[in-house]
From TrEMBL:
SUPFAM superfamilies (UniProt xref): Nucleotidylyl transferase
Native species: Acinetobacter calcoaceticus ANC 3811
Keyword hit for Transcription: no
Cytidyltransferase-like domain mapped to chain residues: 22-77
Record's protein name: Cytidyltransferase-like domain-containing protein
Any single Pfam family the record assigns to this protein: CTP_transf_like
InterPro entries referenced in this protein's UniProt entry, alphabetically: Cyt_trans-like, Rossmann-like_a/b/a_fold
Keywords carried by this UniProt record: Nucleotidyltransferase, Transferase
Length: 202
């Protein structure tokens, strides 16, 4: 039996609790607590579905990175084998819980196999995490201890001041943020941040 056959056999013997674990977030930017969550999800599930929030084609100082850029940023932190097990759906902002939940379910159902065991992984960090309760048909995997429950808001603010807080980011994110700083988009975001302009970039 070849090494490849041995690997495939060992992969098939892994008993995952879930077929898919859904992880909802904006990942603006992708930090160590996000990465820890995905690593835990990959241990428990065959696939992880990342539902990227605020996925409409617009940028502002709260949502600086487009969905495709966030996909690139996230995947750069994982091996090729792990990347094959990470799926993405793009969730646009809908300020109505019922419509938003329907959108998330429809998108997720579009990338999973029928009759799968699906769970939702997340961390109740504050009152903004209430949405985790809106999917009762998905088995909840609640995480207690993450990397100090870090928030991306102060990381973005530091980034607009020209600082990449490397202690909070995996290597792929650091590389992405460093390269993004050289773009005209970053310069425009930085300008808006300095005058507290929350409107979208043109």
């Amino acid at each position: 039996m070849s090494v490849t056959d041995e690997f495939i056999k060992s992969e098939n013997l892994i008993m995952y609790k879930f077929d898919y674990l859904v992880f909802i977030g904006r990942f603006q930017p992708f930090h160590l607590a996000h990465m820890q969550t995905i690593e835990i999800a990959l241990q428990q599930s065959r696939y992880v579905v990342l539902a990227l929030g605020s996925a409409q084609m617009e940028r502002n100082i709260k949502n600086p990175f487009l969905a495709v850029e966030r996909e690139q940023m996230i995947l750069s932190n994982f091996s090729l084998e792990e990347q094959k097990r990470i799926l993405f759906v793009h969730v646009v902002d809908v300020y109505n819980d019922e419509k938003w939940v329907k959108q998330v379910k429809t998108l997720v159902n579009g990338v999973i196999e029928p009759n799968s065991i699906v769970g939702l992984i997340g961390h109740f960090k504050d009152e903004s995490s209430y949405y985790l309760r809106l999917f009762p048909e998905w088995i909840m995997v609640e995480l207690d201890s993450l990397k100090d429950s870090i928030s991306a808001t102060p990381m973005r603010e530091a980034y607009y001041r020209g600082e990449i807080q490397t202690e909070f980011f995996p290597v792929g994110t650091i590389r992405f943020l460093d390269e993004f700083k050289n773009t005209e988009v970053y310069a425009e975001l930085q300008r808006k941040y300095l005058i507290d302009d929350k409107t979208n970039l043109n």
